[in-house]
């Protein structure tokens, strides 16, 4: 306990780190306050629970309850994530966007502007579907085209403000801003879900509740192990004689993470899974709309979980391919006089790293998909649906990934100031360490 308080003291003694932590807390407070501001023209007492079940309930968990409250942040950051998915797919498939991505800082700025414009377009469609599918007619005080148009504009503005908050947290705060906003929304719903589970079990089910917590502990440990697992490729640096001294010759390794993409495949896949129910809400009078709505509005159905797992597998390979470039790693090794024992520098090194990356990404993506659909199995075992969402799945993966990333950044500040790290042995490893490799 003494070491814990000493670490807290060291953290707040670093001025830059202290300012970043306070900035992050301030931005998160603004985000939480905005989630309680209801859209004009809506009576919150008549909203009921129309938007708190099924897939909408899961979305409400990510947004910290703003979805069910019909707040100005009802769509949160999800449209921006959807736009980012589209742009990243275009940078892989369309030469124009590939060229733009390789133009350096100017190209990235143009891609950012395109992503923002696309976010507004996606938000407009999702906002119209949200108003049509989830808001009861009796809750709308002044129905008509003016209400829908004004609400769409307000929801789009709320999403853009959330995006701005996320960017500010990344620039002036600690951690990844977009992931941080999603995590704070998830954590805000955890206490109420835990209390609801305890109330449901009662005194007669105390043993079952304890077993649930123990099982959840092991699931968390498995997720942490998945996030931290690495495949070390040994490398050797050539010896160089300069004057009377010899340099180089040291041994090192390349730490390729089993889950190099982190939580991004989960976030991307989850963002796409929110689209079918919204589309079904717009065409709810048709048979196709009813089929899509009944099939993909339940996050515990086998159809939903099968599609969700497939999307996670695809996005894991896709995001790993665009974040870890074997050619760049091989070129950096060659320039620095490093090589993998038994492998020729250059193209063969790149091919070897790509093969290893493919071999470790496949089991990593499968395990990631299994963890993501664990809530469905938890519900089958008798866990309530609200608490089952935290029993693995997207919620747990996002929380573990974001917390580890944030702790890794804090530890980097401590080590740069020659303080002790946050652990006695070893280091907190985050996704950003793969970039250093």
TrEMBL record:
The chain crosses the membrane at residues 21-42, 72-94, 114-133, 139-165, 177-196, 202-226, 260-283, 303-325, 360-381, 387-407. Keywords: Cell membrane, Membrane, Protein transport, Translocation, Transmembrane, Transmembrane helix, Transport. GO terms for cellular component: plasma membrane. It is found in: Cell membrane; Membrane. It is a multi-pass membrane protein. PROSITE patterns: SECY_1. Signal peptide: none annotated. One of its GO terms (biological process) is protein targeting. Belongs to the SecY/SEC61-alpha family. The central subunit of the protein translocation channel SecYEG. Consists of two halves formed by TMs 1-5 and 6-10. These two domains form a lateral gate at the front which open onto the bilayer between TMs 2 and 7, and are clamped together by SecE at the back. The channel is closed by both a pore ring composed of hydrophobic SecY resides and a short helix (helix 2A) on the extracellular side of the membrane which forms a plug. The plug probably moves laterally to allow the channel to open. The ring and the pore may move independently. Component of the Sec protein translocase complex. Heterotrimer consisting of SecY, SecE and SecG subunits. The heterotrimers can form oligomers, although 1 heterotrimer is thought to be able to translocate proteins. Interacts with the ribosome. Interacts with SecDF, and other proteins may be involved. Interacts with SecA. This is Protein translocase subunit SecY. It comes from Fulvivirga sedimenti.
């Amino acid at each position: 306990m003494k070491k814990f308080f000493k670490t807290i003291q060291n953290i707040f003694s670093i001025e830059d780190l202290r300012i970043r932590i306070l900035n992050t807390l301030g931005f998160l407070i603004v985000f939480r306050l905005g989630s309680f501001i209801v859209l004009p023209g809506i009576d919150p007492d008549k909203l009921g629970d129309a938007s708190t079940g099924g897939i909408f309930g899961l979305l409400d968990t990510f947004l910290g309850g703003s979805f069910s409250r019909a707040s100005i942040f009802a769509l949160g950051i999800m449209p921006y994530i959807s736009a980012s998915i589209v742009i990243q797919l275009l940078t892989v498939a369309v030469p124009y966007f590939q060229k733009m991505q390789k133009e350096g800082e100017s190209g990235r700025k143009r891609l950012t502007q395109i992503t923002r414009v696309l976010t507004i377009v996606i938000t407009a469609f999702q906002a119209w579907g949200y108003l049509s599918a989830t808001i009861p007619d009796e809750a709308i005080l002044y129905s008509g085209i003016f209400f829908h148009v004004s609400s769409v504009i307000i929801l789009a503005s709320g999403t853009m403000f959330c995006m701005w908050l996320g960017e500010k947290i990344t620039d002036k705060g600690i951690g990844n801003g977009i992931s941080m906003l999603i995590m704070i929304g998830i954590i805000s719903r955890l206490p109420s879900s835990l209390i609801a589970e305890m109330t449901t079990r009662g005194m007669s089910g105390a043993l079952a509740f304890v077993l649930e917590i123990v099982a959840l502990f092991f699931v968390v440990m498995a997720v942490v192990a998945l996030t931290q697992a690495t495949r070390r490729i040994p490398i050797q640096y050539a010896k160089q004689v300069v004057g009377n001294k010899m340099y180089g010759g040291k041994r090192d390794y390349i730490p390729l993470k089993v889950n190099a993409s982190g939580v991004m495949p989960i976030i991307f896949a989850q963002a796409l899974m929110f689209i079918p129910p919204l589309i079904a809400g717009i065409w709810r009078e048709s048979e196709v709309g009813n089929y899509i709505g009944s099939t993909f509005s339940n996050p515990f159905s086998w159809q939903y979980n099968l599609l969700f797992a497939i999307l996670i597998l695809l996005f894991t390979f896709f995001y790993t391919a665009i974040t870890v470039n074997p050619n760049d790693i091989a070129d950096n090794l060659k320039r620095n006089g490093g090589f993998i024992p038994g492998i020729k520098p250059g193209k063969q090194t790149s091919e070897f790293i790509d093969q290893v990356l493919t071999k470790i990404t496949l089991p990593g993506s499968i395990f990631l998909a299994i963890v993501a659909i664990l809530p469905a199995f938890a519900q089958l075992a008798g866990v309530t649906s609200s608490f089952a969402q935290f029993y693995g799945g997207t919620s747990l993966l996002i929380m573990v990934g974001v917390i580890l990333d944030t702790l890794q950044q804090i530890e980097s500040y401590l080590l740069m100031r020659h303080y002790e790290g946050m652990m006695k042995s070893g280091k907190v490893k985050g996704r950003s360490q793969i970039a250093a490799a």
